[in-house]
Structure formats: C-alpha cells, structure tokens
Specification:
The protein is an alpha/beta fold and 363 residues long. It is built from 13 helices and 13 strands.
C-alpha cells in the first residue's frame, strides 16, 4: 500500500503521520520539532506549557503564554520547514487567549478537542487579522462520535461558512482524557467503533460535496504499528495521529523516568480512571492512583487555573500537580496518562525509528 503525503490547504506534510499532543510537558518543542523534521506533523501541547517558568505558581496564564512562543521557536529551530502545530483543549481556562498566542507565534495548525471548538474560526480569523498573518492557520477539531462530528460540521458551516482543514477522529483506545462516557467505552469494541468511523466519514463526505473540496481525516487512538495504520487507511482515513508511541523516544520532552514507566508497564497496569474534572481517562496504575482510590482526596497546591470545570474545593486531587509530577519523572506521585497499548513499549527508540515502524511503505 502506497503512503501518500498529507495535503492540508497550502501546506503539505511529507508523511501522513501526526504526533498527538500530550500534556503536561510531554510533547513540547523537542518532540514536535523532531517529528516535523522527519516529515510528519509535530504537535506541541499547550496544556500548562509554562510549568517550568519561574512565575508559573504566581501567574500561570502569563507563564503559559510566554512558553507557547519559547516551545514553538524551539521546534522551528529543529525543523525550519516542517509542519508544526499546537493541541489546545477547549476545556482550558483562557482558551481564546491561548489560541491567539499560538497564531501569533506562527503555528501552522491548531488541533482542538476536550470539548467541541465551536467558535475557533471566529477567534482564529480575528487573530490572523490582528497579527497580519500571510497564511491562515489550519483548524482541526477532534471528534469521537458521528453526533459530535455533525454538530461541529453543521455549526461551522452555518455560522462561519467554512469546513475544517482537517478532522481528527479519536477512538476509545486513546490515552489521556477520552471523549466518551463510561458506557460508550464499554460499548465501542473494535467492530462497533469501525462502524462509527464509517458514519463519521459519511458525514464528512456530505460537507465535502457542499464545499467542493476534500476534508482530510486523521484516525487516532490505539495506532501502534503497521497493522493499525494499514487498517486506518483501508477505512478511509488520510492520516493517522499517534501519541503513545512517541513517548518512549529519545526526543520526547518528558523525563526518562516517565518513559521508563511505559516500558515497565504490563497489560494489566493500563486502566480507565476518573479525572478530577469528571472525565474518564486512560492511565498506568501506580502508587498515586492506589492512594487516590484509598484516600479519596489528596491535598494539593493553589489553583493553577487549568480547566473551566474544575472546582479546587471539591476535586480529589489536582490534575496539574499530578501531570507535572509525571513530566518531571516523579512517577509514583503522578497521573501517568497513556494509550491502550503503552505496555507494548520495550525500549527507547528514536522518532525516525517509530515513524518507520508505523508506515507500511515509504512515500
């Protein structure tokens, strides 16, 4: 099977491989730049991206805004001509400010999930005008069901007279926060989710016909080898988005102890957890998760203003604290988000090796 480059508007990535955004601090400029250099699309996670800034505890928003430019410039230095973007969660506080900042920094692409980015076109257009961008930023919503796909496609069509530059379908085997209820996670086995993918693609085709142009689609969640990549393209995807496989690379921005936690994990260690903000997520069982189960509530630092739906007085633990500990390698005091197949990692690889292991045939 011949693998074709991924064309997104005026931009073309040599390889149809998107590195998924992973926060906090897992996919920053180092990893994104390395993936872009190899011909894929490198994605920086903006989630609490400024956690290493000296004023993060005092003013997390200012720290995050500053770090967006720092990490983008780091990635761009590694890959001057590659495709580099950001993952921005709709659930983030100050979402609009972060969208504006990544556009100001020069990002090629914004991938946005953890909620539907209903008004992303409005925010982007305003920022492009203000910062006099000579090329529009590409906009890519993440969806997990046919219903969510139709909602975003219809809304963007009706209100903004536009369609996505890319649509990311994230399945139930993905890592981190998942766009499914607990019941849906139990329902969507391999065959039933493939049917959902077909339904989403049918919705996409309706809007392709209306606008007379293609909407490229990337399939994400559980993509860990050639077999899954081949199946994704058979189903009609134009690209794959891969996150977990890039964690155990030399170029990944996380601490080596975080990477080693993946390598040490067994299949039974990968569990579905409930995040402090009520969303299901996939993570590695460790001492921290056992403590959460046993104690119910863990003391945390002052609020770092990460998510809209978080009430610091009611949460069992602070997700920012837990994810920062993960990035720093304090793995027994951390929430270790991962994909369903994280336990298959057996060694530290390079980004180049991971990409080669995914593609059935070179371009």
């Amino acid at each position: 099977m011949k693998i074709e480059p991924l064309k997104l508007g005026e931009i073309t990535a040599k390889l149809p491989v998107i590195q998924g955004g992973m926060g906090v601090g897992i996919s920053l400029g180092g990893l994104a730049g390395a993936v872009a250099k190899e011909g894929g699309i490198g994605i920086i996670s903006a989630a609490q991206i400024g956690y290493r800034e000296p004023d993060f505890d005092r003013d997390p928003k200012a720290a995050n805004l500053r770090a967006i430019t720092t990490e983008y410039e780091k990635a761009r230095k590694i890959s001057p001509d590659g495709v580099i973007g950001f993952n921005l969660m709709v659930a983030m506080k100050f979402y609009e400010d972060y969208v504006r900042e990544v556009i100001k920094a020069g990002a090629d692409l914004i991938i946005s999930g953890a909620g539907l980015p209903m008004d992303l076109p409005r925010i982007a257009k305003k920022a492009e005008t203000e910062y006099k961008r000579d090329r529009k930023v590409l906009l890519a919503p993440i969806v997990s069901t046919e219903k969510s796909a139709r909602v975003i496609l219809r809304y963007w069509d009706r209100k903004y007279q536009r369609i996505p530059d890319l649509l990311v379908i994230e399945g139930p085997l993905a890592g981190g926060h998942l766009g499914f209820t607990k019941d849906q996670l139990e329902h969507f086995g391999k065959d039933s989710y493939e049917e959902e993918i077909r339904n989403i693609l049918e919705a996409v085709r309706e809007f392709e016909e209306k606008y007379g142009r293609k909407i490229p689609v990337a399939l994400a969640g559980g993509i860990e080898g050639k077999e899954q990549v081949k199946r994704a393209f058979e189903l009609g995807a134009d690209a794959v988005q891969v996150a977990t496989r890039f964690v155990t690379t030399e170029e990944c921005d996380a601490d080596i102890r975080y990477k080693e936690a993946y390598i040490k994990a067994e299949k039974g260690d990968i569990i579905i957890v409930k995040s402090p903000v009520g969303m299901p997520g996939r993570a590695i069982r460790n001492a921290f998760m056992e403590r959460v189960i046993k104690e119910g509530k863990i003391p945390h630092s002052p609020c770092h203003q990460c998510l809209h739906s978080c009430n610091p007085k009611e949460i069992p633990y602070c997700i920012t604290d837990a994810l920062i500990n993960a990035a720093k390698g304090e793995t027994e005091q951390a929430l270790l988000f991962c994909g369903a197949y994280a336990y298959k990692a057996k060694r530290i690889e390079t980004v180049k090796e991971v990409i080669a292991s995914l593609l059935p045939e070179p371009v």
